[in-house]
Design a protein that fits this description.
The complex is a heterodimer of chains A (about 100) and B (about 325). Chain A is an alpha+beta fold and about 100 residues long. Helices cover about 35% and strands about 30% of the residues of chain A. Classes of the chains: A alpha+beta (about 100), B alpha/beta (about 325).
Chain lengths: ~100, ~325
């Protein structure tokens, strides 16, 4: 199975409030609220860390969830947000990641 | 001519001060940032400010007259992912628009800026301020917005200047025109819902507030003074002296504002329009009491529903402040 890579788009606005994150895609004026688990994936989406590594190294460490279930949830999240210009989705690492919007 | 914002510099923040405040706002959880004026493009560092705001992942909106937006400025706005740019257009007729702006050729320059931004895919709001002398121009401006691919919005009210000078209220359209606007689908999505008779106030209404000023948003003046809203001249602190978190969390004036629920409003809590009224505490403050009624909203409520609010004796007597025109009042 090939690795998948995700990176936050430079076109979005986002703010972490408590454990959740609100994101707004200016292109589509879409607004989403990410729960705790999705927030972990969002924060780790640097374009160079494979999605599976994010799930196994971060999500499964912080939440009581199996790698299979967590990966399935992460893929569903990525698919939902792909259509909103919220992040990029690639099958190869994104280099360099320095142009990504940093978090406060 | 009509703008409520006072003119004058009064020690504008330097770029590094703006940058510091943006970081404080982001840390406090602020997501939405509207940059307005005066005219924001008069600041030579505007794009530096926007870039920093975007780096901090703010959702940025820009209000401008568009006169200083050429191809390069349009490109930079677009590349910085500004969510939307609002440009005021007072009339589709050049002489009428320029009679208000006082700048020859300003309509064509504003439209040119909109065209440039739209050609790059930038979302643009074309804002029409209803005023005496141009009140019949709403369909023309709407057609212009449609032709340009911009979103059309109507602002029906001229409000007093922040220094208390209310001579600009004479520019408000008449009551008959106001009724046409607030009952127009171009102004609200659902006219039927917006103009329905008010429901009796329930417990949730009495515990609620009519405006999020000081609760969910605030205004920061160019010199760092913090107010609950751009239309609410209640100084709550200076960002030159305290951090945003300190002002937002500790200001006695903000705390006082937040304490006032609808049930605490001495006049309005008994008004039959309480459940639908958009009472502006800032305008009420300028009329003498932030917990009092704001005449503009009493009058707008009447225009919406055609029903004279029982809590507004002035309206029952036909005493209108904002939209003066004879022949409509039932009282």
């Amino acid at each position: 199975m090939s690795d998948k890579y995700i990176a936050r788009s430079t076109g979005i606005a986002a703010r972490k409030l408590g454990e959740e994150t609100i994101i707004i895609a200016a292109e589509t004026s879409s607004v989403f609220t990410l729960n705790e688990q999705a927030t972990v994936v969002w924060e780790a989406a640097d374009g160079v860390t494979p999605l599976r590594t994010i799930v196994e190294g971060r999500v499964c460490q912080e939440f009581d969830v199996t790698p299979e279930a967590a990966y399935r949830d992460a893929e569903e999240l990525v698919t939902k947000l792909r259509g909103t210009a919220s992040w990029w989705f690639r099958t190869s690492p994104l280099l360099p990641p320095s142009s990504l919007p940093c978090r406060p | 001519m009509h703008c409520y914002v006072e003119q004058g510099g009064n020690g504008e923040f330097a770029t590094d001060e703006v940058s510091r405040v943006l970081k404080e706002l982001a840390s406090a959880g602020t997501l939405f940032l509207s940059i307005s004026g005066g005219e924001p493009l008069l600041r030579g560092d505007l794009f530096e400010v926007i870039a920093e705001a975007r780096r901090l992942a703010f959702d940025v909106k820009l209000k401008t007259n568009g006169l200083l937006i050429g191809p390069e400025e349009a490109r930079r706005i677009r590349s910085l992912h500004v969510h939307e740019v609002q440009v005021s257009v007072y009339s589709h007729r050049a002489e009428a628009h320029e009679g208000i702006t006082g700048v020859g050729g300003s309509l064509e320059r504003s439209l040119s800026a909109i065209r440039l931004m739209r050609s790059l895919g930038q979302r643009v709001i074309l804002s029409y301020v209803a005023m005496r002398g141009t009140e019949g121009d709403h369909p023309g401006v709407k057609a212009l917005a449609s032709e340009l691919g911009a979103v059309f919005r109507i602002d029906p009210a001229i409000t007093p200047r922040l220094n208390g000078d209310d001579s600009n209220l004479e520019l408000n359209v008449g009551r008959g025109e106001l009724v046409k606007i607030v009952q127009n689908p171009d102004y609200v999505n659902s006219v039927e819902e917006y103009c329905a008779p008010p429901a009796p106030a329930d417990a949730a209404t009495l515990e609620g507030v009519s405006c999020s000023a000081g609760f969910a948003h605030c205004y920061i003046a160019p010199n760092g003074d913090v107010y609950p809203c751009v239309q609410f001249p209640l100084l709550c602190g200076s960002l030159r002296e305290r951090t945003f978190a300190e002002i937002w969390g500790d200001s006695p004036r903000l705390k006082e504002l937040r304490r006032a629920r609808n049930r605490d409003l001495p006049v309005c809590h008994g008004c039959s329009h309480l459940s639908l009224c958009s009472r502006c505490p800032g305008l009420a403050y300028m009329e003498g009491d932030m917990r009092g009624p704001s005449a503009a909203d009493c009058e707008k409520s009447y225009a919406r529903t055609g029903i004279v609010p029982s809590g507004s004796p002035r309206l029952a007597e036909g005493k209108f402040r904002y939209w003066k025109e004879e022949g409509m009042c039932r009282g």
